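Data availability (excerpt). All sequences and predicted token strings are deposited with the supplementary files. A representative entry, HAD-superfamily hydrolase, is shown inline so that the format can be inspected without opening the archive.
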Amino acid sequence: MTTSISETPCIVADLDGTLLHDGETFEDRFLTERSIHAIELLHERDIPFIIATARPVSTGIDIAHTLHPDAVIYLNGSLIDYDPEHSTPQSLSQNDSPERENVTSIGFPSSRASEICRTIIAQIPSIHIGIVMDDVRYTNFDLSQIWTTQTWQYTDFTDIPEGTVDKIIIFPTQDQVHKLHTLIPEDLAVNISEGIMWMVMNPLANKEHALELICERWGRSPKDLVSFGDDLIDIGMLNMSGTGIAVANAHPSVLQAADQVCPSNNDDGVAQWIEQYLDSRQ
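Structure token line:
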């Protein structure tokens, strides 16, 4: 245990590959009772807990309602929920306002997203691409091949409703990657999740910026954060936190960036770290 951890820390955890155990499919990933109990111990000690995930509301909100976090970062930072205890999928929809009292949405216009998708398809006709907005995925391919529980519909990107897009998702084959790099607008950011899904987003839509907004709202310092992650998109979050911790199964670059390494997700590494930390405080 390092001595740099704040006396009043705030624990932040990614879900997939970090807090959740693996499963044969995305839908089979799960929380263990040990992890649930470890988060309950944090609540008992009045230590804030934040979920920071790339998951959308549809596949993350049930986990949030199980763990009772003090805030949730969805969609890798595109959506921040400051009051998850009272949130519903409907209350987290964008409606007509990108910023509300208990929700912050960071995206870009659907008209521009549609134009980008059409431009990419014109150059790479076989690419699998889609737009995520208000927890609906508008795609040019059968999304149920990847996720069986997420709402989606076919599109040619001429019929996308007006609104604020959370992200463009792309599943390029290896021979499409080089060309795709040249087609992403320079003012947007690309994050790659689990090595297969490209997420084209507002450059401010990331976990580290979302945590900065939460810290500002709570009057906390990023130095108070103890953050856990496993994927490349977690590196910024680990670097900006007072203590960044990688699970042992993390990507090699994440392991290198972390201040500490805890056991793997399938060994309840986050829960083990929390238990040991709380014991040390006694």
